[in-house]
Write a structure and sequence with these properties.
single chain; 572 residues; seven-stranded parallel beta sheet; 19 strands; 35% helix; 14% strand
Length: 572
Amino acid sequence: MSQTFDQLGIRAELTQTATGLGLREATPLQISAIPVLRRGGNLVLHASTGSGVTAAYALPLLDRISQEGTEGAGPRLLVLVPTEDRATRKATLLMNLASSVGLRAAALATGWNRRAEAAVVVATPEGAREAVERSELKLGELAAFVLIDANTQLSDSREALVALMTSIPKDAQRVVAAAELTADVERFIEAHVRKAMNVPSRSDDPAEHVEMTGDVDYVVVPESRKEAMLVRLLEQRAGARPVVVVRSESSADDLREALSLRGFSAESGVDADVSIVTADDAVATGTAISFDVPFEKDCLKQVHANGGLVLVTPPELPHLRRMAAAVGLTLKALRVQAPASDGLAEYRRMLRQAVHDEDIDAQMAVLDPLFEEFTPAEIAAALSAIVRKRVQPRATGSAPAATAAGAPRPASAEAGFVRLFFSVGTRDNIRAGDLVGAITGEAGITGDQVGKIDIKDSFTVVELSTAVADKVIRAMNGTTMRGRSLRVDYDRKGTAGAREMRDAPARGGARDSGRSGGREAARDGFRSGPRSAPPRSGPRDGPREGTRPPWDGPRGPGRGSSGDGPPRRPRP
């Protein structure tokens, strides 16, 4: 039976704000969690992004804190997230809720002022620890502590987390959310979250085997690129008039407006290019595209019993997999052909990459006298004119690229494939199809640029077109699969030596994706938004000097896959 937030005891101001953000009824997770937190109990949420985690803890904790008062120095609620960029978006979202009950939220991140006055603070473990050590963050009055994405944070920030726990009052309420209750998470809970309730309850009977009754395609895509991916799908399915399913009316209105700006008609009527409906109004159809991952399994089955497609962000994959398995749906990664790049687009890409990778400070000193005569834009245009006379921009993969040292790559390497190391394997229940879907969706490449996938126990080696290898490294390094933070790099030592690399720290931090505002809030009951900038692993057209991969000679254009994964599906 569905319940509203006011029926769960949440005060009217918070309930009204939640409704304005597109949340009218509580999800099963929220129905179980909110009463526990309103009573002051500790809680372990076995859930991931997409199931309504943020609303499950934010509404009851803000309700309690606002009624207890906020006198004294320091925050009353501390929320720890994997990245500073995510802290900014989470704090922005919580500010909408907190302000409705007279509280202020802030992030320990660039661009936030008056952080000392905030009753709600969002930070990374490292940022919070440094602030505590500098006496800028005082935790003596803390009433509640929340650890989001515990799997990732215990992998990447264990030392900072352990140090922080010594500063948190023993009587502070504690909440831990984890996609998987691994041994590391269990040890942390045992040490720091005593007498915690579990949602879902661990006493529940194990789920019985469910017969697989249908297939559902999915595309892994960062939140910030969902609209672009949807438009690409609509272009490829012209004339089909698909049904796009969102979580709330506010999300539907936002998406209609966004599509109309791109020339697509999404209003009601027989001539509309696409129909946009909420999950409550959706019926099973093979043309259904879930723009938002459903909150619960029954909704997934209602919409996709006859097939269709789901747009899913990397953090939402565990949630989607659990729901699909529970209702007998088989998930299949769909490869979407990326648009061909043109010369100007490639040239602009080269310039963007140079801003990140080259020593531009030294060049600024060279050009400084000219800034007194011309504007920086005029100087940049002049330099661009000189460069374009000497360098012909190319489409990706159409000509040999230069390495960081300036020497061209071997022709055999440019024409073939290189091998990349991924720090997940069979012990993480990874399949070839999962990797193909994540790589093509996250890096925006095509399926024919992915070659053989060799899955081992603790790592995987993937062959990729040389032209996109660096792009994949930047896009995938630091993302999360099966609750593990990925390390992605060139397989410099070959598969025999890859085990020595798997425990090395990743160059990039955990990433996140999404948008702020009402639609983002509705997608996860206030879920997190856009990702931080991807870690750099060298120029796009080649690895850094000294990290050049062991070219094995030319490889044919054909593709293969290990026997561990499903057969490749044709591109739409």
